[in-house]
Amino acid sequence: MFLFQIDWNKKQAQVEGEMIEVASEVVLFSFQQDGERFRVACAHGPDGSLGLCEASRGPWTRWCYGSESHRRRLVMPVPTVERLCREWGAAGAGQLACVLAVRYTGFACLSEVQRHLDEKKLSYTLVGDEA
Question: What is the DSSP letter of 10?
């Protein structure tokens, strides 16, 4: 019998009685082609907050933003994370990161998360290029 249990707060999973480390970062979207690199990742903080980071580098970034690299970070405070956890049935920030990875993907995933937070009137901080 295969048993699997995750404790996102301790970043560990129990698989058939053995504890293994769980990645603290969840990739929502990653793209690499013709010298362009684009990635959106989500990580939870030790305080229960959740951050998304969108980073790109390459010729398309230069064309879109006029610079070699581009980075934006969206940080959700604990009350926002708790509200989303209740909305989507997630057990904490680590599991919420996985829910976001399933719900939002593609180049615009950070913007789509931001739009959802705006629609629900939930608090977040957006920092970085073009924020």
Answer: G
* Per-residue model confidence (pLDDT) at position 26: 86
3-state secondary structure of 32: strand
Nearest one of 87, 71, 69 to 79, comparing CA atoms:
87
pLDDT single digits (tens) 6-64 = 444 455 544 445 554 545 678 899 999 999 999 999 988 878 889 999 999 999 999 98
The SS3 call for residue 42 is strand
Report d(CA 78, CA 48) in Å as an integer.
Answer: 6
- The C-alpha atoms of residue 38 and residue 56 are separated, in whole angstroms, by 4
CA distance 123 to 24: 23
pTM, to two decimals: 0.77
Beta strands in the chain (DSSP E): 4-7, 12-15, 18-21, 25-33, 36-44, 50-57, 69-76, 125-128
- Beta-ladder partners of 25: 43
